[in-house]
Amino acid sequence: MATTEETATPIGYGRMRRKEDPRFIRGQGTYVDDVNLPGMLHGAVLRSPYAHARILSIDTTAAKQHPKVHAVVTGADLEGLKLAWMPTLSADVQAVLAVDKVRFQGQEVAFVVAEDRYAARDAVELIQVEYDPLPVVVDVRKSLDADAPIIRDEPGSERTNNHIFDWEAGDREATERVFADAEVVVSQDMIYPRCHPAPMETCGSVADFDKATGKLTLWTTSQAPHAHRTLYALVAGLPEQKIRVISPDIGGGFGNKVPIYPGYVCSIVGSILTGRPVKWMEDRSENLMSTGFARDYVMRGEIAATRDGKIRGLRVDVLADHGAFNSTAQPTRYPAGFFHIFTGSYDLEAAHCKVTGVYTNKAPGGVAYRCSFRVTEAVYLVERMVDLLAAELDMDPAELRLKNFIRPEQFPYENKTGWTYDSGNYEQAMRLAMEMAGYDDLRREQAERRSRGELMGIGVSFFTETVGAGPRKDMDIAGLGMNDGAELRIHPTGKAVLRISVQTQGQGHETTFAQIVAEELGIPPEDVEVVHGDTDQTPFGLGTYGSRSTPVSGAATAVTARKVRDKARLIAAAMLEASPADLEWEKGRWYVKGDKEHGKTIQEIAFGAYTSRDLPDDVESNLEAMSTYNPTNLTYPYGAYICVVDVDPGTGYVKVRRFIAVDDCGTRINPTIIEGQIHGGLAEGIGIALMELISFDENGNCLNGSFMDYLIPTSMEVPDLELGYTVTPSPHHPIGAKGVGESPTVGSPPAIVNAILDALKPLNVKHIDMPCSPARVWEAMQGRAAPPA
Amino acid sequence: MTVNGQPASADAEPRTLLVHFLRDTLRLTGTHWGCDTSNCGACCVLLDGEPVKSCTVLAAMAGGHEVTTIEGLERDGALDPVQEGFMAEHGLQCGFCTPGMILTGRALLDRNPDPSEDEIREAISGQICRCTGYVNIVKAIRWAAEHERSATAAQGA
Fold this sequence. Notes:
The complex is a heterodimer. Chain A is an alpha+beta fold. Chain A has a domain at 21-27 and 484-629: Aldehyde oxidase/xanthine dehydrogenase, molybdopterin binding domain (Aldehyde Oxidoreductase, domain 4, 2-Layer Sandwich). Helix content of chain A is 27%, strand content 25%. Chain A is built from 18 helices and 34 strands. In chain A, strands 3-7-1-14-11-12-13 form a 7-stranded mixed beta sheet, sandwiched between helices. Chain A has a 5-stranded mixed beta sheet with strand order 9-18-17-16-10, with helices on both faces. Chain B is α+β, with helices and mostly antiparallel strands. Chain B has 2 domains: 2-72, Ubiquitin-like (UB roll), CATH 3.10.20; 81-156, Orthogonal Bundle (DNA polymerase, domain 1), CATH 1.10.150.120. Chain B has helices at 18-25, 81-88, 98-111, 117-123, 135-156, and strands at residues 2-3, 6-7, 44-47, 50-53, 66-68. A 5-stranded mixed beta sheet of chain B has the order 2-1-5-3-4, with helices on one face. In chain B, a hairpin with a 2-residue loop joins strand 3 and strand 4 (50-53). Chain B starts with a strand and ends with a helix. Classes of the chains: A alpha+beta, B alpha+beta. Chains A and B meet through helix 1 and helix 16 of A and helix 1, helix 2, helix 3, helix 4 and helix 5 of B.
């Protein structure tokens, strides 16, 4: 099935306007900074100006004397509460407020609580800190040198270097054998630079500790409110039933809002100390300089093939920069996330990857910026290597991919690093993208333009993701299994409330999840209220990131709705005076086999559930169910992307002229929302490929701490986007859906970089590291290496 | 100042930014705060009908002027066509940039009732959206232009 438009269906799957929009277009959303409680105070954080320095003294006297200040908290104060350090999501610890020394520029040193946000900032300026600067290491390639300063030498630490972990996947020896007798081997050093999710809403929280009831309510910018609640309970020793975490409307997350940040903890401490609600909202510089960055992988890739273009093996060695604290959000067993999906969409003989994680004097992380745990880095690596191989073999990059794809009959396909791909028809997607792009015509146009000295490039990428984490036997985060729940209640009048454990940051859960219920039960989506983002009101689950909402909680929703349908059958049977075995289902009603007129709608059944006197004794008088979904496997969305760029020969400026994206996310629920997700992810991919970068000078000063310096695509850089799709359902997901939110960010950067290198082919440029800014492209065009990120 | 047609008056420190005055003093939280450098436009409001970034306007500077925020667009229970357009064309996702984008769209249509795609892109180029890739924001403003024009034509007929 490969079409470009589908018809709307009145209920269930199909295009419909989003249910969340009416409040947003009126400015009536409730984001964390919109929460305003009686007596609320405001917090501000004092941050380190140094990337590495010992703290000699902190003098808070003047700050405390400020007439509007209610509390000043330092690391020493937190030590007394055993809260100076907090666990990260990756079995490390992170300083809430620095005690012994600061380890990156922008690190949290003190917290002020004052009557308004301006006074809090004023008082921060009154705190005097004496620092003794230490040597700094910001280059991951120097971090393991014998003379590198040791970053994590805090009391109790026995570290003698900056090494965090070594991790491998695949078969090293088999891969070495393949490379030893390969006809062609191509290798390339490449950097996936540090970038930042930079959602439009920064991170923040409002903590309200009620001394009388002992209840802590925390409004916070969290993509994982349940996981956060449990971690707060474990760390702070607060009873979990007395903690309510609310993620209200979230202004974009993209992975940035998965970790727990020191500011959240400080707002809680502030509220406990002052007995009043405390709001903390970071500003944009704080967001860019201190919260979860992404990527920062320095990679050396090698690909082996036959002379006629059969790819045989792939290997990669990675240095992963995790910053000053390992607060990356990954499943515990996988310190490099799902990077070992790096064999991509190709049927290889052998593959091996090794990832070494290290500390540097940079902000901690990294988070998966619109990505399922390092899949983005993996796809970039393989898609660049395949293009480098195509150049070496003088083959068309689309042809080379078509020649090496995993074939449809090979699914479920076990790759060489331990993944079992669920389903796919890669050639179909690739051919559709080529058809939409007019690939052959583009190549002809390119030849013509080249003859005139113009630099037009056509870039291809094909990605396979692994999302929807995940099976309980394989993965957890901080010990918490990665399963998600859904609870569905049908009220007497046939209207429903669905409570889910995942949380929207713009993805449209309130619409999509209502549509899943609609499809399963025949209750119109307008009649299904979706509740999310409040731990007091929803079942446990690990939250929204890694494209896991639909694969996990969406599956839970379908399973729960089917439980309701089964229960409705028993009630309908009683109402119809028939045996349940004699009933048949059509969307929205149970009827007696062979007598279609004789039936009950789900709404009639719901009313009967609460009002009928004829229910059997073993049927409880309600119509509700809940379930927690444990996926049997991850899902494997994929896509074929083609990008057309024009490079200005005089300036190196890259103009993305066209972008064609064919995605296969399995069963499609709301195509409008899917397209919106793809649009947004492609824009972020354009940003990553061309302009987004967090860089540092040798002293560890962050050079991109505002939107003046951290560039994000505007409407002038993002072209109109051309989308197509194929549908290959996931065989193990209840409705066949695979998840789509991150596909475009994963797949687009290599397409863009491949297009740029394709444009520069006449100049014999082999590789440029992202972001491909005009300066870097121009340098490469002059035959000079671009400066390292 | 006049905010959404109503007189608004309150004491504020001279340094108070308009965005904070609107949000914290008047409790009009539809105007958002996304950066401090006038780059993102989440704080866009109309000052005498022209879009401005309220993080770079002092509240005192708005004294004596007319401020329109997102809360002021809906009139007598009727949504502005630009608001309708954003719903019809899926011009928003997280909703954080949306008020500013809608107000800029409104100001554009007030001076150019039939803008081209390029003109729309230029009008919103000072504002950042992280979710939509701008494609559907452009369509949403076009939707509003077309519906306003047909409504005007119907009134004229």
